[in-house]
Design a protein that fits this description.
The protein is an alpha+beta fold. It contains 3 helices and 4 strands.
Length: 128
């Protein structure tokens, strides 16, 4: 992967991060909403995938799973629930892209489940 391809991947991921954060905000997520973030990578070989998983473990303390796909290997890891912001997600995206690049793999993005809001309950003294 040459420098221009890396730059294209990074810029594309940063744009998707901004768009995803915007969608999360429209769904009620804010900087005070704890989010668990799933990270996704793709590597051509199992050894490259295992190298990504190893760096995720050493750099972030994450346990990553490596599994075969049709003609590649997928790497998935989950960040524990934490408060995030657009700026923190941009930094995370840059860091994950760099980890992928170091091992000839591609950071394929991140996802987060929108936390369920607690259902409004009536006070115990109200029966109507």
């Amino acid at each position: 992967m040459d420098e221009s391809e890396r730059d294209h991947i990074l810029q594309s991921q940063l744009q998707m991060t901004a768009a995803t954060w915007s969608q999360l905000q429209k769904s009620g997520v804010s900087e005070v909403t704890p989010l668990s973030v799933d990270l996704f990578f793709v590597a051509a070989t199992e050894s490259e995938a295992r190298a990504v998983a190893s760096e995720l473990a050493s750099a972030r303390g994450l346990q990553a799973s490596v599994g075969p796909a049709e003609d590649s290997f997928n790497i998935e890891a989950t960040l524990p629930s934490q408060h995030l912001s657009a700026a923190l997600l941009q930094e995370l995206t840059q860091e994950m892209c760099q980890i992928g690049f170091r091992h000839n793999a591609k950071f394929d993005g991140w996802g987060a489940m929108i936390p369920r809001r607690k259902a409004a309950t009536k006070p115990w003294w109200r029966f109507w």
